[in-house]
Amino acid sequence: MPLTEQAVETAARRPVLSVQDLKTHFMTDAGIIKAVNGVSLSVGEGETLAVVGESGSGKSVTGLTVMRLLGRTTARVVGGSIEFVDRDGKAIDLLNLSDMGMEKVRGHDIAMIFQDPMSSLNPVFTIGNQIAEPIRIHQGYGKKEARGKALDLLRQVGISDPESRIDSYPHQLSGGMRQRVMIAIALACDPRLLIADEPTTALDVTIQAQIMALLKQLQAERNMAMIFVTHDLKLVDEIADRVAVMYASQVVEEGPVDQVLGHPRHPYTKALLECIPSRRDAQGERRQLHPIPGTLPNPLSPPSGCRFHPRCGFAADICIASDPELEAVTSDHVTRCLRWQEVAL
Amino acid sequence: MSEQADIERPAAEFRAQPLLSARGITKHFGNDGGMFSKASAPIRAVEGVDLDIASGEVLGVVGESGSGKSTLGRLVLRLIEPTSGTVSFDGKDLCSLQTGEMRRFRRHMQMIFQDPFSSLNARMTIGDALVEPIALHLGLRGQAARDAAVGVLERVGLHADHMKRYPRMFSGGQRQRIAIARALASSPRFIVADEPVSALDVSVQAEVINLLQQLQKELGLTLMFISHDLSVVEVITDRVMVLYLGRVMELAPTESLYGNPAHPYTAALLQAAPGMISVKKHILKGEIPSPANPPSGCVFRTRCPFAIDACAHTVPTLRPVGPDHLKACIRDDIEL
Ligand SMILES: Nc1ncnc2c1ncn2[C@@H]1O[C@H](COP(=O)(O)OP(=O)(O)OP(=O)(O)O)[C@@H](O)[C@H]1O
Ligand SMILES: Nc1ncnc2c1ncn2[C@@H]1O[C@H](COP(=O)(O)OP(=O)(O)OP(=O)(O)O)[C@@H](O)[C@H]1O
Ligand code: SF4
Ligand code: SF4
Ligand SMILES: [Mg+2]
Ligand SMILES: [Mg+2]
Fold first, then answer.
1. What is the DSSP letter of B15?
2. What is residue B52's three-state secondary structure?
3. Where does ligand 2 bind, in terms of residues with CB under 6 Å?
4. Which residues from chain B sit within 8 angstroms of residue A283, using beta carbons?
5. What angle do CA A268, A273, A274 make, to 5 degrees?
6. Coil, helix or strand for B185?
7. pLDDT at A50
8. What pLDDT is attached to residue B35?
9. Number of Cβ atoms within 10 Å of the Cβ of A9
């Protein structure tokens, strides 16, 4: 059965990142925003974990917490742990690592591609500079060698004639090319883990397909672990081995892609799938879309009990009273629903 | 100059008298005799497009960023002047209308934009935002205008209570409902919806698509639905036009376009779209060339996996390949 094969495969993958019960809260004037509130995730070598969820569900904050890139004045990690396993198999506690140690991890081990390439590229430096600089700092290359490596990287991410592009400034490039440059910068340190935060959201489908193919190829070549953040479930199927579905600051379902998308065990996952416009059915009839009633909860005052209960078609009294925990559906598939065994999804 | 030869249209019966027609419509930007315009070539945003939309029809317009979708939408509403070509609405040549006449015509033709956050004035209550077009186009005042405003609000699933609130008090989906209500306020017959759901989360997107479909049926609206999301377009349209560098590559009923794409560009778009077709035979290489300097012959040839020498010399004309199905490609001997 493919199910058990997959379980074996997953177990055999050496873990790279393991996040347990992470809580990242923002202290704002209006109150505490519990942007990430009990998130657990893990990803192994050569594996891609997709993180999906609607806008504001906490996907980016999870990634930024792992990278320790959130400002300390407003953002507080109030609970949980983040463990990274380096190339030598040594476990590193990222939350308690010194700033210098973390700087080294970001230069050598974990890289992130950000949601908006324009705001994360520096407008006053050439792209060649921005790719070569981390190579010089972290890998001790000389100026000329670093430039050579930058050219190589640009070629690898599919920029033809990189010699004519390397001295360009970000604003001189198209959106698709900027995203490739972001990928080149991320790969410069040959990371063990790549966190890609909506790397194709702003791009045309054609360019998106190019970037997706590129990421898949580079990941396979390097046996990299990847966390692929997206709000597009259709992309999950194309790129990921496993998927974590987030709702209102928590992971509500996690497991192998074909299990979670094929046989969802959480009403929210099921509801998200029903929102996707799909091909017509066998009779050529247009399928009716089923929007999720209501709106995402206010992050300042999330509902009691199951956070999805005001919008859930299966909500019962118990869902208002008690907080669901993640429960195992199979050995590697979990759901955060009190009624998953009773409801027919 | 229109590059298109006479088009033989096996015109569907119901398009015999289209609500909206465009002939050879062309828009070049930057060649308006302005200070710097002589030095650089004009941007050929839309190039010789012919188009008929029947009353009650939903026409999709797809293509990559920069292919000219929004420009075409603005041209057919005469929000911008064409460089050449004509647009007629209900048999009337829009370009011949004087400003005053055009203003009266506006009530029949409206636009919905991508971003519900910036398309609504933050300092106007929802009620005022709706009363304004009602007063302007329908001449209603006072209580009558407010009643009409509540009427359209209810059409889009909101209530009279919402009249006094400001846009920031609404979620993204609600704001797009309000933008739709505003477009509906003057009881238009034709609406250009330019990426109306692209900025929304899937759950909200589904809500707005359902609303648009329902209103289209109830009110018999004619819609031009612009989007780069092929799965959304498949759900909502009757016919689809595929644009590339301002030219029509393919025009066909939705089912036959998705089931039997005839143009290499359409096939490539469908293969690139996630969740559409799982076998990705041809991932298009490179990017859309500059519309200031389009390739000779077939504009798609620099990225077309089937290009042959002849493609550089011949401008393909739109020609029928099936019932109501047109393509602009010189080759018939290719397997897509
Ligand atoms: N710097 C900040 N200060 C205060 N609140 C913040 C900050 N950054 C994020 N938030 C809040 O944290 C929550 C989660 O935000 P996050 O950016 O992780 O969402 P997301 O899932 O990435 O959404 P999107 O799909 O829109 O990118 C939101 O309610 C957001 O408003
Ligand atoms: N006012 C303008 N002045 C100069 N060039 C323009 C203007 N408006 C559009 N263009 C150019 O015309 C071409 C077509 O633009 P248009 O906005 O119609 O494309 P689109 O298909 O709607 O793209 P998108 O998917 O990005 O919205 C582009 O090259 C664009 O840069
Ligand atoms: S716990 Fe209850 S409200 Fe929450 S998802 Fe399950 S059935 Fe729905
Ligand atoms: S005319 Fe030639 S280049 Fe153009 S789409 Fe057809 S085969 Fe491709
Ligand atoms: Mg985000
Ligand atoms: Mg546009």
1. G
2. strand
3. B 29-30, 43, 45, 63, 65-71, 228, 291
4. none
5. 95
6. coil
7. 98
8. 52
9. 15
Q: Is the dihedral of CA B29, B31, B37, B42 positive or negative?
A: positive
> CA B143 → CA A110, A185, B164, B166, B280, distances in Å?
62, 61, 14, 20, 58
Which residues from chain B sit within 8 angstroms of residue A175, using beta carbons? 65
Q: Write down the residue that tokens 């259709």 correspond to.
A: A234
- Locate the ligand 2 atom nearest the alpha carbon of residue B226 and give its number: 22
pLDDT at B15: 60
Concatenating the DSSP letter of every residue in A156-172 gives HTT-SSHHHHTT--GGG
Q: And the tokens for B66?
A: 């920069």
Question: What pLDDT is stored for residue A180 in this prediction?
Answer: 87
* pLDDT at position A287: 67
Task: Write out residues in chain A with pLDDT < 70, as ranges.
Answer: 1-12, 279-287
Nearest atom, ligand 4, residue B305 CA: 8
Do A206 and B268 count as a contact with CB atoms less than 8 A apart?
A: yes
Atom of ligand 3 nearest to the CA of A266: 5
Indicate the residue of B64, B201, B283 with minimum beta-carbon distance to A54.
Answer: B201
Tokens representing B49 are 């497009």
Report the SS3 class of residue B63. Answer: coil
Interface of A with B (CB under 8 A): 54-55, 160, 174-177, 204-210, 212-213, 231-235, 237-238, 271-272, 274-280, 284, 286-292, 295-296
Quick: pLDDT tens for A307-323: 999 999 999 999 999 99
pLDDT at site A1: 39
Contacts of B327 (CB under 8 A, 6+ apart): B249, B250, B251, B252, B262, B263, B318, B319, B321
Query: Secondary structure of chain B: what % helix, strand, coil (to 5)?
Result: 35, 20, 45
Output the pLDDT for position A279: 59
Contact A235 B274 (CB under 8 A): yes
Q: Which residues of chain B have pLDDT under 70?
A: 1-16, 31-39
Predicted complex ipTM: 0.82
Q: What is the pTM of this model?
A: 0.88
Q: What tokens appear for B302 in the block?
A: 């620099």
- Model pLDDT, residue B95: 85
3-state secondary structure of A328: strand
Alpha-carbon distance A275 to nearest alpha carbon in chain B (angstroms): 5
Amino acid at B180: I
Supply the pLDDT for residue A298: 85
